[in-house]
Specification:
By secondary structure, the chain is α/β, with parallel strands linked by helices. It has helices spanning 20-31, 62-72, 87-93, 127-144, 168-185, 205-216, 231-236, 260-279, and strands spanning 38-42, 77-82, 101-104, 109-114, 117-120, 151-154, 158-162, 188-192, 195-199, 220-225, 242-246, 255-257. Helices cover 37% and strands 21% of the residues.
Length: 280
């Protein structure tokens, strides 16, 4: 399947830069009662929340908060966020309504938002995995040491080398060393935008997303993401599903929007069409 059009090649309508082909597909899904329950699953950073140099500053666009709340309130719609972030960070930053599924750490962690917090699946490591995680942390810290702007995040099952704040002369060798470390230790390695994640439990967004869709019995999934790690989800989904790349770069997604604002506008198109269908 050819890549989705590049941002400069998108034929858009007046509805916030939503490409015409995507708009037509969303309208068709909304009109198809056999597509229920519809699973709307979305990456967080770079998809709903514009990328920030400081990850703690990421927030969903205000229009996105509103449209997610209204989508979650519709019958026959399930909402999920699928992120590389650790579950704790994702829950803290994501302004999503109760009932939303949260998939963190690229599929390792899963929870559902409730009125009282999180109904969370417990992730337990074997002793050998915990020991390996400790080694990863120490070795990743050595990769970052002495390189301005390179820092290490520790997750329940992984360590992450971040380079977004680093200059290329520090970022490029740090990422290369982190990838080599993953190969040396035989752990799962995910190389995304300005980040390398090394995990002792192998998982990917595609596997996690398909597991959720089968659990819910969702005949159609809409998934939108911006990073190379989202390509796992695009590739894993089925021909009837709606896959949306946010921003530039090669992709196997069937549709593309230019930026998070256009992605939120596309969600508003879907929401409005679903509301009209429910009144018909």
């Amino acid at each position: 399947m050819p890549d989705a059009p590049a941002p400069d090649d998108l034929g858009t309508d007046a509805a916030g830069g939503v490409p015409i082909d995507l708009r037509d597909r969303l309208l068709a899904v909304a009109a198809d009662t056999a597509a229920r329950p519809l699973l709307v699953a979305l990456d967080f950073d770079g998809t709903l929340a514009p990328l920030q140099d400081d990850p703690a500053a990421s927030r969903i666009l205000p229009a996105g908060v509103e449209v997610l709340a209204s989508l979650a309130g519709l019958d026959g719609v399930a909402l999920a966020l699928v992120s590389g972030r650790a579950m704790g960070d994702l829950h803290t930053l994501a302004e999503v309504p109760p009932g939303t599924y949260l998939i963190g750490s690229h599929g390792v962690e899963r929870a559902r938002v409730t009125l009282f917090g999180l109904d969370r699946d417990v992730v337990e490591l074997a002793h050998t995995e915990a020991d390996l995680l400790a080694v990863l942390g120490a070795r990743a810290a050595a990769v970052a040491r002495g390189r301005d702007g390179v820092w290490v995040e520790t997750k329940p099952t992984a360590v992450v080398v971040h380079t977004r704040l680093a200059e290329p002369q520090d970022a490029e060798p740090a990422e290369a060393e982190a990838v080599a470390l993953g190969t040396e230790l035989g752990v799962g390695t995910l190389h995304g935008k300005d980040v390398v994640e090394l995990t002792v439990l192998r998982a990917d967004k595609g596997t996690a997303l398909q597991a959720l869709r089968h659990e819910l019995g969702a005949p159609v999934v809409l998934y939108a993401g911006d990073d190379v790690t989202d390509e796992h989800a695009f590739a894993a989904l089925d021909p009837q599903d709606v896959t949306v790349k946010v921003g530039g770069g090669p992709t196997v997604a069937r549709h593309r929007v230019a930026d998070p604002a256009a992605g939120v506008a596309a969600l508003a198109v879907l929401r409005d069409a679903l509301e009209r269908a429910s009144r018909a």
